[in-house]
Amino acid sequence: MSTQMITILGPTASGKTTLAAHLAEHLGNAEIISADSRQAYRGMDIGTGKDLCDYTVNGVHIPYHLIDIAEPGSKYNLFQYQHDFVKAYDDIMARGATPILCGGTGLYLESVIKGYHLSAVPENKELRDRLSDKTLEELTVILTELKKRNGSNMHNTTDVDTAKRAIRAIEIETFNGEHPMASADVPNIDTLVIGVDIDREERRSKISKRLRDRLDNGMVDEIRGLLDGGIPADDLIYYGLEYKYVTEYVIGRLTYEEMFEKLEIAIHQFAKRQMTWFRGMERRGTTIHWVDASLSMEEKIQYIKRLWQ
Question: Is the pLDDT of residue 1 over 80?
Fold first, then answer.
């Protein structure tokens, strides 16, 4: 019997979505489940790189799930993702189709592959008030200590690039340290995991080109529209990367040049952290079959099919 699911992961700008869509078209009767923490939000399209046109291959529309399911300004989280994933996965399997999990959010990917048991963590106002005047550096130290005590690998530096995110991560780790994890109904999924291995210099070049393209094609207007629609600047900054730096430019905290330079560096650092997370997944027991991003689409698909069969 073949494996139940194929997972395609890789750093930003590695071409994983295009590969997943072409693979789905090639297999026939396959659907994609997104594992991208920011593509869940409606109206946040250019900055999150949804590129929905990628889901049409040779005139065939590939069904996708867990994109555009949350309101911008809300705080979609790992617990919600895991439950939404299970619903999408069960739905796809019930129709006899093949699920292809695709994305770059390491925590989302690993929570599904490893079947993390998660509980819904409520807000802890007293804890938040106590942490409110601490710097990001101080919060990071507190989080590191909590993780060590809990033996947790649930939050990495991607989660703590703003004080607000760091406080939420501390809140979750504190709750999990005090309460046994409530068991979530996560199926034990046998998945073939494919990693898209892109040369570091090629990745850097693609990231820089893509950033310029997105800025030229309306990313600033998209974020201005979200602000005009009533979403507080701090809520957009919370999402990090494009939404953090472009918002700071729109509200006048940064010049265009400062925004571009800081954002470009931040995306490069983010891609590096993604690769660190994937290597960590391998150390924690996940077998990732790496495919060279420079191969032709046909060669990549044939490689995956050989492993799949």
Answer: no
Token pair belonging to 111? 């929570």
Gap between the Cα atoms of 93 and 30, Å rounded: 10
Contacts of 307 (CB under 8 A, 6+ apart): 192, 194, 289
Rounded to two decimals, what is the model's pTM?
0.82
CA distance 197 to 230: 40
What would the two tokens of residue 115 be?
């079947």
Which amino acid is residue 53, in one-letter code?
Answer: C
Place of tokens 């940064």: 254
pLDDT in tens, 174-193: 877 766 554 456 678 999 99
Give Cα separations from 63 to 21, 52, 60, 92, 159 (angstroms). Answer: 9, 11, 10, 10, 29
- By three-state DSSP, how is residue 197 classified? strand
Computed over its alpha carbons, how large is the radius of gyration of the chain? 19
- DSSP label at 133? T
**Four-CA torsion 226, 231, 233, 234, nearest 10 degrees:** -140
7-50 confidence digits (pLDDT tens): 999 999 999 999 999 999 999 999 999 999 999 999 999 999 99
Q: Where are the alpha helices (DSSP H) in 102-251?
A: 106-113, 125-131, 136-150, 163-178, 200-216, 219-228, 233-238, 241-250
Cα Dmax for the chain:
58
